[in-house]
Write a structure and sequence with these properties.
It contains 11 helices and 16 strands. With 406 residues, the protein is α+β, with helices and mostly antiparallel strands. The protein folds into 2 domains: 270 residues, L-amino peptidase D-ALA esterase/amidase, CATH 3.60.70; 123 residues, Roll (Ubiquitin-like (UB roll)), CATH 3.10.20.
Amino acid sequence: MTIKKISGGVCAPKGFSAAGMHCGVRKNREKKDIAMIFCDVECSAAAVYTTNKVYGAPITVTRENLKNGRARAVICNSGNANTSNADGVEKARAMCKMTAEALGISKSDVIVASTGVIGLTLDLEPIEYGIKELSKSLSKEGGNDAAQAIMTTDTLVKEIAVEAVIGGKTVRIGAIAKGSGMIHPNMATMLSFITTDAAITPEMLHKALKSVVDKTYNMISVDGDTSTNDMVSVMASGLAENDLIDSEGDGFEAFKAALEEIGGYMAPMIAKDGEGATRLLICNVSGAPDLLCAKTVARGVIASSLVKAMFFGADANWGRLLCAMGYCGADFDLSKVSISMSSRAGSVQGVENGFCIPFSEEEAKKILLESEITIDISMDQGGADATAWGCDLTYDYVKINGDYRS
């Protein structure tokens, strides 16, 4: 099956329009702070959420609304997470009601999300204004504005769309995402909204989403902090008119492969845009005894603060990689492990059979000074593979988070 990248983001699939604008939640008028996505028809819908026990009020309300597996709209503000507030659920529900009234739909058909500072009371006055204006400006060209409006400390707009032929019909999937700090998802602050025109039941949509999230979005770590507001949601309009995907089979596998293309694009984009980051880190684990081991090792290495600091300094300290593997909780035979690092400047091996070996410091420095670095860990103990994405830990990360509220 050929999966092709196309333009349009969340508006690429049939039936969807979007908009984004500045309404006043954020003080900076140059930054958009509220986004809306809308579908002309009722959609199958699914979502996965943060596992943090302290979670945002929008998570509570979206869970309620998606119990029936149906939705038609997304409303999301940035600048305020609406978390740890006594009136948070009430206000999240109010956002759904406002959106429903503006669009002429049921309030239970709204996915609501918020991102930004935790613990600040959310002012609904600018939100109400923004919702009314957004409902008037929805368009097939509004995906990029929506992508900008959900950003907080992000420096890169994150959007993508793909298409593939499934059951003889062209199916499209589009997505936007935000995430730069507080990224260590376990479903970080991380949000992603996905749209598709595939015909698929809510149950199979959730199954596909969960599988893809586990391989992609949940394999990112910027700083080891799992956010209170993480959410990845998907709405499927069915307007592609493919045979309904209601069970596992060729159609389901094809759809999942296309959805994985979305997650596989977004995960490194989010890691690359980590707060203060100068380097994207990709950790590939191969030959692990089982998938759990492969994923645990890949995430353990990419999440280590010492490993991240090592890459910021372009210091080939192989012991830090081994140390992170050793405490990550995976069960493996160290005597079979080899590690190398590579970038467009070349490749260098520093671990063989579990021991550090001689290498060229000069060559290693050149490799680690590049903006994208791959860590390859060969375990030679089975057939399981996994990839995790992260970034270096810089002085700017501390600066950004030292005065985040201001």
